[in-house]
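Before relying on records like the one below, remember that each one covers exactly one chain. Contacts with other chains, cofactors or solvent are not represented anywhere in the record.
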Amino acid sequence: MTEDKYSILGIPKTASQADIKAAYLKLARERHPDRFKDPDERDAAARRFQLINEAFNLLRDDERRRKYDEEREWQQKPPEQRAEQHYKDGKYREQTGQYSEALKYYYEAVQVAPDNPTYKVAAGRLLGKDRSKQRQAAELFEQVITKSPETREGYLALGELYTGLGLHTRACRVYERGLKALPKDPELQILLSQSTAAAKRAKK
C-alpha cells in the first residue's frame, strides 16, 4: 500500500498550508541527501526525499489535495461498501445506456468483492449484449453457478444467454442443474419446460 502523503510529512489531515510548508522545510533540512556521506545512506535519503517532495507538491495544491482526500477517504471504506457503490454506479449507467462505463463499474465491483455473485451476473449480462463477448459472459455465469450453486440468478442468466443463441439443449442442461440445487424453484421449472419444448421443435 502506498504510504499516506500526510504521514510522509508527519502532519495531520487537518494541517493548514502553513503547517504543510513548515513540515516540508523541517524535513528538507533534516533529510536532504546532501547531509549523508555514506553512498547507501545517501541513496536511501534521495528516495525518501523524492517522496517528501511528491507529498509536499500534492498537498500544497488545494485542488489536488481535495481529490487526494476524497480518494483516501474512499479507500478507507470497507470493501463491501466500495463494491456496492461501484455496482450502483454501474446500474445507473446501464439504465442510461452507458454500457461501456457500466461494465467498468461492474468489473470494479467484482474486483473488490469477487465472491459476490450479483456483481458477476450484472457484468455477464452486459457482456452478453455483445456477440463477440458472449463466451466471456457464459464463463462469468459458470463461475457464479460453481461457486454459489444456491444463487438462482446464475442459472437464469446462463439459460437466457443460451436461449437467445438458439442453444435450447444447453439451456435445458443449465435449468436442470439449477433445479438440482433449487428443486422447488417455479421459474426454473417453467423455463426448463419451455426450453425442452423449444429443443424438440428445433429437432423437427
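The chain has two domains: 6-75, 131-203.
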